Amino acid sequence: MKEQLAKIRAEAISALESAKDAADLDALRVKYLGKKGELTGVLKMMGRLSPEERPVMGQLANDVRAALENALEACSQKLEAAALERRLRDEALDVTIPGKPVVLGHQHPMNIALEELKDIFIGMGFTVLEGPEVELASYNFDRLNAPEGHPSRDWSDTFYFDGDSRVMLRSQTSPMQVRAMETMDLPIRIIAPGRVYRKDEVDATHSPMFHQVEGMVIDKGVTMADLKGTLNTVVEQLYGAGAKTRFRPHHFPFTEPSCEMDVQCHKCGGAGCPTCKGEGWIELLGAGMVHPKVLEMSGIDSGTYTGWAFGIGLERMAMRRFKIADLRLIFENDVRFLEQF
Ligand code: PHE
Questions:
Q1: Rounded CA gap, 204 and 198, in Å?
Q2: HSE of 340 in the Cβ direction (CA atoms, 13 Å)?
Q3: Torsion angle of alpha carbons 254, 179, 169, 138, nearest 10°?
Q4: Residues linked to residue 281 through DSSP beta bridges, in sequence order
Q5: Separation in Å, CA 156 to CA 80, 139, 159, 198, 214
Q6: Using an 8 Å Cβ cutoff, are 55 and 114 in contact?
Q7: How far apart, in whole angstroms, are the C-alpha atoms of residue 135 and residue 114?
Q8: Considering only CA atoms, which residue is closest to atom 10 of ligand 1?
Q9: Counting beta carbons within 10 angstroms of the beta carbon of residue 146, is it exposed (0 to 12), middle (13 to 18) or buried (19 or more)?
Q10: What tens-digit pLDDT sequence spans the chain (341 residues)?
């Protein structure tokens, strides 16, 4: 029996040495110390011993049990420490590994063009206004001197919301002239960028939604010379000192006299090419002196005050600025296009 105990002890200790994890340890614990384990098996035979031998063997068996329990505990601690060591090594963060590159977005070319334009006007003391895209026909037409039945109410091919044509998607940013006159103190210097809507078919130069930037100045003694001077300054800042402009007579119901302003083609320098459709010039905006009737309708004394206004087509400006050939590219949001700016 003594030999058996010694054998169990030796075997158990050597088996522990090759234990790899907690499961191995558990199996060994059951094998040697469990209810049906080897040590228990030996203890069950104690009854056969003589009364003198029994305490001696009992003591020995207890020593073996204690030794095995200690060994199991020590081994368990060793394995846990090793597991922790391994986790620390495996999960270590190498802060010297280069990070994943962050792809930064940037502004849409239309926003870049608008920001440039805003900066120029803010530098000249203008305030930037925003107004509703769903507009009342009274602001979009009536108070801009285009009363019921005026041809502009159909030639602008408007998106109306109701049967009697009182609510609409604004067809121009000019209603912001009226909204500014209505709410602001004189003198007024504003620009008002935003979306406008017309029932146009989509092609290289037309879209049912596009952007305008309205501008208006009202003060005492304001003349057409101020309009030309201001717009020429803007064009020079946008397109460089050599950029030439020309003003052609035109008609708008809310300005008198009215004009359109062209910029000399940047591609051919005025000789005529496909970009300017052979004209040598590219139309950029409509403008004019605010019609006295428009001033009066908004309660401004046209005997004391005069003003001018303009409406720039922002897509057109951006297309010239970035040499974009087709308007549709601006709205399609194809990243291969957008990445170029
Ligand atoms: N609203 C006009 C248009 O859409 C442009 C314009 C604005 C003309 C201001 C004169 C004064 O064509």
A1: 15
A2: 10
A3: -60
A4: 264
A5: 81, 15, 9, 6, 17
A6: no
A7: 22
A8: 287
A9: buried
A10: 778 878 888 888 888 888 888 888 888 888 888 888 887 877 788 788 888 888 888 888 888 888 888 888 888 888 888 888 988 888 888 889 898 999 888 899 999 999 999 999 999 999 999 999 999 999 999 999 999 988 888 855 899 998 888 999 999 999 999 999 999 999 999 999 999 999 988 888 889 999 999 999 999 999 999 999 999 999 999 888 888 999 999 999 999 999 999 998 877 888 988 878 899 998 999 999 999 999 999 999 999 999 999 999 999 889 888 888 888 999 998 999 998 98
Residue 187: cis peptide before it, omega within 30 degrees of 0: yes
Give the distance, in angstroms, between the CA of residue 177 and the centroid of all CA atoms in the same chain. 31
In the chain the first and final C-alpha atoms are separated, in Å, by 91
Q: Which atom of ligand 1 is nearest to the CA of 173?
A: 1
How far does residue 310's CA lie from ligand 1's centre (Å)?
Answer: 6
Residues with CB under 6 A from ligand 1: 172, 174, 252, 255, 258, 286-288, 309-311
Rounded to whole angstroms, the Cα distance separating 313 from 302 reads 28
pTM over 0.85: no
Cα(42)–Cα(60) distance, integer angstroms: 11
Across 273-310, b (16+ Cβ under 10 Å) vs e yields eebbeeebbbebbbbbbbbbebbebbebeeeebbbbbb
> If you measure from the C-alpha of residue 140 to the centroid of ligand 1, how many angstroms do you get, rounded to a whole number?
11
Distance of CA 336 to the CA centre of its chain: 17
